[in-house]
Design brief:
alpha+beta; 4-stranded antiparallel beta sheet; 55% helix; elongated; single chain
Length: 257
Amino acid sequence: MDLVLKSGTSIASSLAKSFASNVIERWTKHRAEKFFEEFQAKIIECRLLGDNQVEIAQEIDSIISTEIGSEVVFDAYRSVSLSKSKIIGPRIIGFLTAEICLEKRLSDEFEELFFSVAESLSDVEIINIASVIESWIELSHAEKKKGYLTHTSYIERDELVYVLEHQESDTTSGNSNEIDLNIGNLDFEFCSGLEKFKSLGLLIPRVIQSSYSFKEDSERHIDYDGTIQVTIKTLVFPLMYRRIISLMSEISDGVEF
């Protein structure tokens, strides 16, 4: 029994070391490279540096050697190492980190939220979400006026509103309790990633209920007085977060897996 346990422990230890060196180290390095590629590109762009590697290295070293710069890069790198995304997420974090370092400040609440988005979503989920939100924006521009029809969208008070469902029910006989107010699984309805996006607070489910009365009208073949219950299920994307969608879209452009 002792030999089996020792052998089992030895195998487990060996597997752990192998996994750490062959898998964790490889993918950590890969994410770090994507982070610093975007970080470097943004520094070069803003500082108008050429391709002189020595100048670039000196510029980056001067930025991250400061107390604020080192803190910003360290916090960002921690997000990169935990990122579910292998390419796009680390690049988004690298881009934002360079901006923050160049402005010699700490990240604000919006950037912290954007870091969380980049860390939490996979590459495919990032691409999916950007595509869905952009399609809603295009749909809102196509509509001549605001409406509440199912699968339409509109912009109101700096919010993009997508109408999941518009339902009208005759509640004259007292069947209002049968109205379903739940919003289903968004990953199933649209694509993988939207449920996470919602849980991060960037997509807000909202149910609007109202009612109106109608009167008996023989000419319109209405035989009784009654009440209609209107239920509109919507998804709301605050446009103050639009920049993260732009970054997700721009940085994912041309990415191959």
